[in-house]
Amino acid sequence: KITKGDCESYLKCFFIANSARAYSVVPAPRDSKEKEMMHRMLRVDHAGEYGANRIYAGQMAVLGRSRTGPLIQQMWDQEKKHLSKFNEILAENRVRPTALLPLWNLAGFALGASTALLGKEGAMACTVAVEESISEHYNSQIRALMESDPERYTELLQVIKEFRDDEMDHHDTGLEHDAESLPGYWLLKNAIQLGCKAAIYVSQRV
């Protein structure tokens, strides 16, 4: 027989569990300033992982059946996990994604496919440029959170550091697989990174 006390205990546990889940990564904002800061941070991180997924999708569309395909797929699988986590975080914290996702959908795929058409070296050059930009962006967020309140943001810092390390692994993989041997490598890299900086700036605000 279920008593009133049992029901109250169940509801209390349910509330605590769901509250813990909602703030397992991001703490409840203390004021409107912190809320705006966190929303901008999470919005741009989600946009970056979304764009990265579309880039790898474009690369796989061109090189998926080549000997480079399994390597690209391996990196893409990690990016899928990153995006899934940020989808979850945005939903839990009621953060609006950037309104520019349709643009990043097309632009990311086009960038991945067009550089892959240059061959393995082109795809790897794109990977180096993008992953370096994302890693630097994550590092700037890590510094900001550490300077603000590292204990308060412990869980979020763990997520960002883990994803930053994955991005750096992808960057190093690109270098190990002849990215720099592409003719015009530095020109392409700088152009892509300029685009990444613009995308980061806009995605925080729109």
From TrEMBL:
Q: Which GO terms describe its biological process?
A: determination of adult lifespan; regulation of gene expression; regulation of reactive oxygen species metabolic process; ubiquinone biosynthetic process
The cofactors it requires, by name, are:
Fe cation
Q: How is the cofactor bound?
A: Binds 2 iron ions per subunit.
Q: Per UniProt, which keywords does this protein have?
A: Iron, Membrane, Metal-binding, Mitochondrion, Mitochondrion inner membrane, Monooxygenase, Oxidoreductase, Ubiquinone biosynthesis
Q: Where in the cell is it found?
A: Mitochondrion inner membrane
Name the pathway it acts in.
Cofactor biosynthesis; ubiquinone biosynthesis
**What is the topology of this protein in the membrane according to its UniProt annotation?**
Peripheral membrane protein
Report the principal subcellular site: mitochondrion
E.C. code: 1.14.99.60
The record describes its quaternary structure and partners as: Component of a multi-subunit COQ enzyme complex, composed of at least COQ3, COQ4, COQ5, COQ6, COQ7 and COQ9. Interacts with ADCK4 and COQ6. Interacts with COQ9.
Protein's UniProt name: 5-demethoxyubiquinone hydroxylase, mitochondrial
Name its species. Poecilia latipinna (sailfin molly)
